[in-house]
Write a structure and sequence with these properties.
There is one protein chain. The chain is mainly alpha-helical. It folds into two domains: 359 residues, no CATH class; 131 residues. 57% of the residues lie in helices and 6% in strands. It is built from 21 helices and five strands. It has a five-stranded mixed β-sheet. The termini are far apart.
Length: 529
Amino acid sequence: MRDPLRLLYAPILALFGIAAVLFFRFSAEDAFITYRYAENLATLGSLVFNEGEPILALTSPLHGLLSTVLFLVTGHTVLANKILGFVLLLAAAAFVWLRYRDQPLLQPLVATLILVPPCVVLWTFGGLETPILLFLVTSATLLGADRRVPSRGQLSGAFFLAGLAFVTRFDSILFVAPLLLNLVVRSRSVRDVSMAVAAGVALPAAWMVISWSYYGDPFPTSFYTKKPMMSVPVIIGNGKYVLFYLALVGIIPMLMLALAIMRRLRTMVETLVGHFGAIWWLYLGVAAQLLYGLTMAQTHMMFSFRYFVPYIPAFAILVADLLERAMSARRMADTRRASVLAWAILILLVFQGFQTHYTYARSVNGLSPWGEYPATGVRQYTRFIETLRLEGENIREHWRTVPNESQRRPRIYTYAGGVVPYTFRESYVYETLASYRHCPPERDQVEAPNVWMRTQVDLRLSADYIHMVSPRHGPISPQLPLPEEHFSLISSYEVEFDGYPERFLVFHNPSPAPHTLTSTIDGRCEAGA
């Protein structure tokens, strides 16, 4: 009875391995922001983007600190992060798989839902905090899923993991709050709860104090520059994106299978009531994240369902438990259960195999018609990252030819704060997140499509180098603060990106204005130049 399902592990692991090979070279551009912070901490002793400026553009404090450790231990931040992400995903999948050791028919299903979706594998190697958060929330979910009265160790462990999750990504509190509430309600010891709360609050509280005292603000600059949007069109668009992706990763098809198995309305109601009563906290956590996604699921660097990928293993637990209840309610024999699950998994594997190829060759969003970079596959995105690296090297080489270059660091204005600043880590960088200040703009700068900084000066005037892309961000001239003849073009690459030919350009400014940006986020801003 078990043999047919055991045979499925070969295609499951094969497809996972193929996706891992195809996506291994993928690194998200924003990941290099974290890497610059991490290596600056290791070499300069300060967790900063620009030396001497305590500005928090780091959205995941734990990831930044872990990356520092990885750099100190290995000397290879990018590769070490990929290996760490791979290990954490496998560990999380193994934990969930072991949860169903007494229900072996469900083990291939949870392995498929966790390891096979292209978005999961993509963000495992993407270099951001996604696999770290996935591991933490999955581990916390498994502690919460134990239906016995929680021990002191379980309580403290769940709260500690929740605290780690919070300093990995702040919005994780929406998911873990119902889980922790469930454990507190089930606990019979006020002392155990008090100790657990202390274990969970200690790390987030410590980080908030450090952030406030050192950076002048408890929140990263993205909190101000990339806020969730509540307009009706945005919510509708994000809703379509989320629903489509829940189908693409296999969640909705498996939920529909559970409903089809139950058939009768009365059976559905009785089963769903019992199911919800047993894991209501997991439903609330997942629902909270999905509702939050309605406001931000398609913002920058959230392509390929990134915001929800950490919660896919938890959702897999929910789906597996519902399927088990549905099959039990119908009193299905084991042979029948094995047959139904085997066919469902096979169909899902074939579909995900095609989507893996599509993600690599055509779109990082897989088969979703929505999302950032809809016409950029992993292969093309990797070329884009390599182009940015070359531009960073070009700036470094050109700066060596500039008279008196040793007297100060070059200042680079860029629309992409990751690869170029990381490649030329000795430079000073003007960029949306790193250059944000609590200063209202002195004048409207809408004529420059790629100027996002809320400062009182046009930072392009103070830059030695202006890094741009055209026509994606508009014509060349409006992206320059002065007539084009004032600058010299030192680097130009023509690359097809997101379905269109683009020019990646770097201009040198021979006479930059003085640097007037404040060194702190809340400092007094200088008058505009």
